[in-house]
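Exercise 7.
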Amino acid sequence: MSASVESCEHLPRSTLMRGIGLVLLSMVLGGQAHGQAAGTPAPASLTCGTLKGESSRTASTSQWTISGPSGKTTETGTLRSGPRFECIDGAVLVMEFTSSAGHSVFEAYFPDGGNVAYGRQQIDRRGGRIVLPIQAKARIAAPYRAAFDYHCKLNMPADPIEPTARADCIF
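Solution. The predicted structure, written as tokens, is:
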């Protein structure tokens, strides 16, 4: 290294520093490009009890499949991120993704074939638990309701919060 620095003594310090900066930048960018896998990435999957979520991504689209006792559903979309799978209480498969338009989606699949879906802005996470709108509780089969906490932030005329349900809200 000292031989190359000595041979650059005739250069102004700013030119030398710029050159070193360009070399470092090319190393960083080259390292990132080198780390990219060629072709299609390996599919991501998660098995959660009787449910299984699988996804794969090409250069422009993502495809995901949810399989369970009630059948198999496959969708394709252009996503900014995801889909990401999570298993709740060993039985509920949760999938989250963000579309290329920036809309985030949360969907929970249940072993009985049911599911609930919300925009990500309607979902909270507190203390390691997922907090859903209280209206979701009635749409979830009794054995799976305890897997979530519930909030009362989403009171809409088409889907009002019943006064008796407010006791189950954590906020």
